[in-house]
């Protein structure tokens, strides 16, 4: 079974047994699906953040470096945010400015990077736990690129031979992209950031994939929130009260796994109702919807992990 199929199967398993989170009826989902509109601009990362021009090696380095550290939402209340910017955008813009000023870190530099260097680049306290986690992820990325791809970031996608699914299965073996939970004794893979890396490499023009539509939702904490506010997901009242009070959920807990897995399964059902939009395209639509005031005004769940 391909990893993307295992993600779908495991998330359907969780959704069928969930005790804290429920998915709306197919009738409601069908109506909701018709309200979603593809963006006028092409699918892909924000050009203010992503490196979409210049040598493929630099574009690949940015996509992989950013996605290796595209986590930390449970720490956002503690970090130094740029005025009017989210935690993710704060980190991403810091990395983009570092690339613009000095170019990418080489694989060898990443192998030796420490939290002080990461903190300086991102404008954060180098002693913060999140900077330590970022440095650990970047060191693993550097080791992998150096040992397996001759230090060339653009070469990472080459062995996949034009398949995002194949690249995902390679990246899933890297510690910097680890993202598997356990629910009722069953492994539940999500690989949010590894899947995002595949899409970002494609959107940056580094590689062309013929099977991006096989990717799943990139399960984080924003899209489940959007789906809950829109009535596609419903949470147990006790869970909702904990989230709205600002309580951190434990990563890997039943509640947190159900939130992510039910979001993946809900988007699969939405995609069946809107076959012209693949799950990874729906991810783009829903993630951008989450920036609207109606969604930002209400608390979403947070958990401290390296998954999202």
Which strand-content bin applies to the residues? under 5%
Give the helix/strand class: mainly alpha
Low-confidence sequence ranges: none
Helical run tally = 14
* Terminal residue distance: 25 Å
Report the count of strand segments: 4
Note the main sheet.
2 strands, antiparallel
Description of the molecule:
- The chain is mostly helical.
- The chain folds into two domains: 3-43 and 212-296, no CATH class; 56-180.
- It has 14 helices and four strands.
- The protein has helices spanning 3-17, 26-35, 56-68, 87-102, 107-111, 115-122, 129-149, 164-171, 192-203, 222-229, 237-244, 254-273, 279-289, 293-296, and strands at 21-23, 180-183, 186-189, 233-235.
- It has a two-stranded antiparallel sheet. It has a two-stranded antiparallel sheet with strand order 2-3.
- A hairpin with a 2-residue loop joins strand 2 and strand 3.
- Helix 1 packs across helix 12 (254-273), helix 6 crosses helix 7 and helix 10 (222-229) packs across helix 13.
- The longest helix is centred in the middle third of the chain and has 21 residues, at 129-149.
- It is globular, with a radius of gyration of 19 Å.
- The two termini are 25 Å apart.
């Amino acid at each position: 079974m391909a990893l993307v199929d295992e993600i779908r199967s495991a998330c359907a398993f969780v959704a069928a047994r969930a005790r804290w989170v429920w998915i709306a009826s197919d009738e409601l989902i069908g109506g909701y699906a018709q309200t979603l509109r593809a963006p006028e601009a092409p699918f892909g990362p924000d050009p203010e953040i992503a490196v979409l021009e210049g040598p493929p090696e630099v574009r690949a380095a940015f996509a992989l470096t950013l996605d290796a550290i595209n986590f930390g939402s449970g720490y956002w209340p503690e970090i130094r945010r740029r005025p009017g910017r989210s935690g993710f955008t704060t980190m991403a813009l810091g990395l983009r400015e570092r690339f613009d000023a000095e170019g990418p870190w080489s694989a060898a530099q990443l192998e030796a990077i420490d939290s002080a260097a990461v903190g300086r680049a991102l404008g954060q306290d180098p002693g913060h736990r999140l900077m330590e986690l970022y440095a650990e992820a970047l060191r693993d990325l550097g080791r992998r690129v150096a040992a397996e791809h001759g230090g060339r970031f653009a070469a990472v996608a080459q062995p996949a031979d034009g398949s995002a699914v194949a690249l995902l299965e390679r990246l899933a073996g890297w510690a910097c992209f680890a993202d598997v939970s356990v629910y009722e004794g069953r492994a539940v893979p999500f690989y949010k950031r590894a899947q995002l890396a595949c899409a970002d490499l494609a959107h940056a023009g580094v590689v062309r994939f013929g099977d991006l539509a096989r990717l799943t939702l990139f399960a984080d904490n924003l899209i489940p929130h959007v789906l809950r506010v829109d009535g596609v997901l419903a949470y147990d009242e006790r869970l909702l009260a904990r989230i709205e009070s600002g309580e951190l959920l434990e990563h890997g807990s039943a509640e947190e796994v159900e939130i992510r897995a039910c979001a993946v399964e809900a988007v699969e059902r939405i995609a069946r109702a809107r076959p012209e939009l693949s799950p990874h395209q729906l991810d783009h639509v829903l993630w951008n919807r989450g920036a609207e005031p109606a969604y930002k005004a209400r608390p979403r769940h947070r958990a401290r992990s390296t998954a999202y």
